[in-house]
Amino acid sequence: MTASFPSLEELRTLLHQNTEKILKKSYEVKAGHIGGSVSMSQFLLPIIHYLEVSNSIDYRLVLGKGHASLGLYSILNLLNINSEPFDNYCTKQIPSFHGHTCYKAFTKLLASTGSLGHGLPIALGYSYAEKIKHSNLPTLCILGDGEMQEGTIWESLLHIFNMDVNLKVLIDYNYSIESATLDIAQSLKSSISITELSASSYSDLTKSIELISTPGPAIIMFKTTKLANVKSFESQPQWHAGIPNDAELSSMLKAISISLEE
């Protein structure tokens, strides 16, 4: 792996800092989906770090699970890409940076998103247009596992390989209690090609860079954990969109312990 991908210890530090930022901001503004924002960050943080630091691959991004905007804004802030969306998250100063993702947050974002199921068709259309223009520009689309129940997702997934577009679908598989995630995953695997990776495995995260850097379609299902790395609070349904109080925030910050192994 190149120097632009963070080392194991660097990534642990970044993930710890990012989790702290998400928890504190949610507490501060009394808003945000912290469970999915933290789980998504397990893989999206190192991927954006690599793409932005290496500056070797231009790309476009769609956050299908737009309710996790706090996770994306925190990453952009932490990596010094754009601090404005995080600083103004759910404030009156810049109302566009609310609970759903605004395209103004990042030059590479293709659309403002929030309604589940809409992100992938947008990404598919854009990547097809790039193919017509004979461009190898990759499009990254981040989906949540609960979002996989939307009909537009299934219809789009079935076309990706037939259309042979340079589209990378990154699924935040955090075993959502709101959906029959395992059944959906198994159904997908029987129909189309999916690579399963663990977001708590450093070697798996480096493999994801190889897949993203290789032209052509790819679907990567990252096994994550809701409210990841916050011990004793992980995978509890109330933290899908729950806001911590004073005591809970204090306990959460003390409980952060990054589960990331070679």
Explained architecture:
The chain is an alpha/beta fold and 262 residues long. The longest helix has 22 residues, at 8-29. It has a single domain (8-255), classed as 3-Layer(aba) Sandwich (Rossmann fold). The model has no long low-confidence stretch (mean pLDDT 92). Helix content is 45%, strand content 10%. Helix 6 (151-163) links the parallel strand 2 and strand 3 (167-173).
Keywords:
Rossmann fold; 9 helices; 262 residues; alpha/beta; five-stranded parallel β-sheet
What's the topology here?
Blueprint: H1 8-29, H2 34-54, E1 60-63, H3 69-78, H4 84-87, H5 119-132, E2 139-144, H6 151-163, E3 167-173, H7 181-191, E4 195-198, H8 202-213, E5 218-223, H9 246-255
Parallel strand pairs: 1-2, 2-3, 3-5, 4-5
Give a concise summary.
This protein is of the alpha/beta class.
Please list the strands of the largest sheet in the order they lie side by side. Answer: 1-2-3-5-4
Task: Give the overall average pLDDT.
Answer: 92
**CATH topology-level fold name:** Rossmann fold
| Overall CATH class | Alpha Beta
* Gross morphology: globular
Total beta strand runs: 5
The span between the termini is: 13 Å
Calculate Rg over CA atoms: 17 Å
What fraction of residues sit in β-strands?
5-15%
Classified in CATH, the superfamily is Thiamin diphosphate (ThDP)-binding fold, Pyr/PP domains
Biggest β-sheet, characterized? 5 strands, parallel
Task: State the helical fraction.
Answer: 40-55%
Give the class from helix and strand content and strand pairing. Answer: alpha/beta
Estimate nothing, just give the exact number of structural domains. 1
Total helices: the number is 9
